[in-house]
Amino acid sequence: MTTICADVDEAVADVADGSVVLIGGFGMAGMPVQLIDALIRQGATDLTVVSNNAGNGDTGLAALLARGRVRKMICSFPRQADSHVFDGLYRAGRIELELVPQGTLAERMRAAGAGIGGFFSPTGVGTQLAAGKETREIDGRHYVLEAPLRGDVALIGAHRADRMGNLVYRKTARNFGPVMATAATTVVAQVVQVVETGELDPEAVVTPSIYVDRVVAA
Amino acid sequence: MTTICADVDEAVADVADGSVVLIGGFGMAGMPVQLIDALIRQGATDLTVVSNNAGNGDTGLAALLARGRVRKMICSFPRQADSHVFDGLYRAGRIELELVPQGTLAERMRAAGAGIGGFFSPTGVGTQLAAGKETREIDGRHYVLEAPLRGDVALIGAHRADRMGNLVYRKTARNFGPVMATAATTVVAQVVQVVETGELDPEAVVTPSIYVDRVVAA
Amino acid sequence: MTLSKAEMAALVARDIPAGSFVNLGIGQPTMVADHLDAGHGVVLHTENGMLNMGPAPAADEVDPDLTNAGKQPVTELAGAAYFDSAASFAMMRGGHLDVCVLGAFQVSAGGDLANWHTGAPDAIPAVGGAMDLATGAKSVFVMMTLFAKDGSPKLVPTCTYPLTGVGCVDRVYTEVAVFDLTPEGVVVRETFGTTTPEQLADALDLPLRLR
Amino acid sequence: MTLSKAEMAALVARDIPAGSFVNLGIGQPTMVADHLDAGHGVVLHTENGMLNMGPAPAADEVDPDLTNAGKQPVTELAGAAYFDSAASFAMMRGGHLDVCVLGAFQVSAGGDLANWHTGAPDAIPAVGGAMDLATGAKSVFVMMTLFAKDGSPKLVPTCTYPLTGVGCVDRVYTEVAVFDLTPEGVVVRETFGTTTPEQLADALDLPLRLR
Asked: Which one, out of B178, C6, C25, D103, has a CA that is 20 to 30 A from the CA of C56?
């Protein structure tokens, strides 16, 4: 059952120190900035954050990093023109980085959500990012074994929710939201608007309500 | 590039003897009956057919089976109240059967379409359907290694296509169509209606045009 | 006095927590839907790609594109969502369904389930989504008669039929009693009519615990 | 005389078959889009979840929810489709893209690509979708200068920078020549201006074949 929260602070009230937090967005598109601001107020620390990037500018994920709340980033593309917060922490040795190819990042979360114990991916074979991992030749092609990646909490940005918790997204802001929604114990979605149940087209629902624990309009 | 075919016979004209043919549908819902009828007329034989069921009544897949064109069925649920065609062939030893749990059937095709060389599934562990397969304990749970399942041709039923080949489906007739569209070398979709490019909502497209080789209204 | 199939279905429906996401297997488990209270907020999943499935339609409203796992016509409730088979089974295998209700040929004291194949040489095997459900759902409930037509128990020390899943069944509903399969053994949860736990202990080749 | 970046982009655009599904990497490869003929039917993919991406919008039509892989605003063409990151990378890794165009630090004669990490101790590594594209696209085209700022060749016998993918590059576009990387070795496909294959053979530490 999905809870419609009164505000973003209620939605993230129980995030525990040390949690693995999946945070949606590709750059700022789809990033749940208001939920992250609430998480900053809430105070959870020693977090492992999984997100495609490692923050842009000084808001959203970058603001969480700047507060020193994140012990480790798991992402594909930390270095950007406006990633100065992460860059500074990383160069100062104040944050761990696990770099994962973007498709492997998505697929590892998909595996966690889909009950898959591991999968053989061709991506990264023969590179530093496959170092130490099991490899196997299958039908003449080389693969590396990748593990599922689960979150305790997912914070995602969607466009609209109905009161049951079904979600639709908007354009390329969809990105990591749907797969993160399948991969975390508690899934919190920030949306622009909550509509009545029955107002979303059942053919166009992207994240069914079964994956969504809390929704907040923000 | 997607070709809009003039008729179903053109759409299946080049299916070769011995092909692996993925056929959509869950029972009759989503089954591309007109494409199958065209395949019967076309004459390809010694086929391996991958489909959830093994034919219902005397039309569609059941009609193809009745013509003796199928050497092997790969499916999850051949035995049904109206599967008398398959039942007769099987009992007479005239067709091979590879039985696969339904979720594994879908996921094996998803793996083929997604470039995954194999995956560890918890489904079927300790049962006859995992006999002889590699197993592994991962984080305290037991898994069986499953291989990708590719088709030479996929015949699927969708609801509408635009002229570029984007597809939308209707209700539970969606079932295996989208995953089969990713897993075959040549993908042929039978639709109720072909609309102009731009008439489908980009947020609601289920199978993007990249996966679709031929579309035919039937 | 033993329970009718409808009474068993009502019993299962009563035990499904409010707001659960539930898959009902084909056959007898489908009847559970008739006993779910709409205000209870239970959402039905069907393996062929839908959440929030509704009851059978009126005869003149049958839609061949809208069926359940048994290929029977169904309807769509407000808040429904459609998805493809790969997504539907990812949901099942990934542990997102709260409860599934399945029929069975046999269930073992350790929770092994046999419900897809009699193993008879001339039988045509069919598994469908049974193994995925048995493996993936958080709670697996079985509905079955306690005894086969030949009088042999179906709740057994070890299954003799081919398995659907290992150690997956949590609870068994029968016409005479409900059993919880726990790490400590088989617990008699409740009995019906004149049936006593002592009679069950005599009839079954199993150690039984009282609740 | 050497080719400008725009001329290189036009050259790549010319070589992309009509109707191809194409991913253009961030940086210089993005310029290829400006040279694709609309009538050619090339469909652009962006890794963040879209097919049929259009050009940059007018300043007053920027939509923060509609960006490319470089986080720059883009537009939507008729026939577009959106999908999530898992689906987008399944498409890439699964071999469904016909062509991708990437930048590079180095490419080896055997088609190894290095474009994600200089390996410098203080560098912050970032890979994004480069490994998925290099591994998944049917044809991998590289656009780069043939020589680094220090004058060293970037088309080399063996990459010294960390690899993005092994044996994945099919063709290299540079300001002085285009090379095909074939199982038989590096083939000079065409040269520009006054550059001759002999000059290239002198400048590169590689055996070269003429087309």
From this structure: B178
CB proximity C131 to A under 8 Å: no
Question: What is the domain count for chain A?
Answer: 1
- How far is A107 from D88, CA to CA, in rounded Å? 10
- Chain A residues with a Cβ under 8 Å from any Cβ in chain B: 107, 111, 114-123, 136, 138-139, 141, 143, 147, 168-171, 201, 203-204, 206
Question: Does residue A127 sit at the D interface (CB-CB below 8 Å)?
Answer: yes
For chain A, how many residues are written? 218
Inform me whether the C-beta atom of residue C136 falls under 8 Å from chain A C-beta atoms.
yes
Show which of residues 158-177 on chain B sit within 8 Å of chain C, judged by CB atoms: 169-177
Q: Which residue has the tokens 């593309």?
A: A77
pLDDT in tens, C169-195: 999 999 999 999 999 999 999 999 999
Residues of D in contact with A86 (CB under 8 A): 124
B110 part of a folded domain: no
Q: Which domain holds residue D135?
A: 5-210
Number of separate domains in chain D: 1
pLDDT single digits (tens) A135-160:
999 999 999 999 999 999 999 999 99
- Distance (Å, whole) CA A156 – CA D27: 28
| A-contacting residues in D 34-73 (Cβ below 8 Å) | 46-50, 63-68, 71
CATH number for the domain spanning C135: value is: 3.40.1080.10
The domain that holds A174 is classified in CATH as: 3.40.1080.10
Query: With DSSP H G I counted as helix, E B as strand and the rest as coil, what are the percentages for chain C, rounded to 5?
Result: 25, 30, 50
Note whether B141 contacts C: Cβ–Cβ < 8 A. no
- Is residue A78 a part of any domain in this protein? yes
Distance CA C149, CA C151 (A): 5
Residue A1 has what pLDDT? 87
